[in-house]
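Methods, example record. To illustrate the input and output format used throughout this study, we show the complete record for 4Fe-4S ferredoxin-type domain-containing protein. The sequence lines were provided to the predictor; the line carrying structure tokens was produced by it.
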Amino acid sequence: MTSLPTPVPGQKKLGLVIDLDTCVGCHACAVNCKEWNASGHSGPLSDFQSKSDGVWFNRVHTYEAGQGEASRTVNFPRSCLHCEEPACVTVCPTGASYKRTEDGIVLVNADTCIGCKLCSWACPYGAREFDEDDGVMKKCTLCVDKIYNENLPEEDRVPACVATCPASARHFGDLGDPDSDVSRLVAERGGYELMPELGYKPVNRYLPPRPRKNGSCGSQNDISLVDIVAKKTASEGKGAALLRWADRVLSR
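The corresponding predicted structure is encoded as:
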């Protein structure tokens, strides 16, 4: 199995901060991500002709939260969270999945990936995508071939999803630096990690929806996406939800 790099104090942790208050669910992030990465680090990205699906590093889910006048729509973009302790890396039998020491980005080496799908089973966030054409696992790379490209203007050295977001709901930076713009944004808005109880320490953060102007959603009742997903799963029955999850994973 693959070992993780030894943590270093003050280490760079590149990641995304996603604002659930301003995300409009337009899927521009998913489309631009697909376009860039189809010829990038993990390209090409396949489309499956037998069904309207394929390899997507970004997927956007939509939930209804609350009831009556207090209800609202929450759009939830999902991609790799580049965890500090990623189970997808430690479970890999060939070392194809690895976490970079210099910036914390989690990547897959397609040359050594054997397509066993163990990493997709280990990832609780569903961030792994199996490319049936290439027979290997692929995932968000934070556009590693773009953010370090010195041929691009500095302002363009951001992931494709961040560059294209029309609502400025996606932010990119070093979450290991408490003084960075993204770290300050997380502190100001009470940003949180997804399912922290699992212990994988995802680097990406989500900003909760702000209270509505009419006061129907007070600050003490800020909508937590974790609560939304948990309640949805509970209402549908744990067994049924688990079977649907397993079916999605195995069908990749």
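Annotations derived from this record:
The helical segments are 28-37, 87-90, 118-122, 144-147, 160-164, 181-189, 225-236, 238-250.
The first helix runs from residue 28 to 37.
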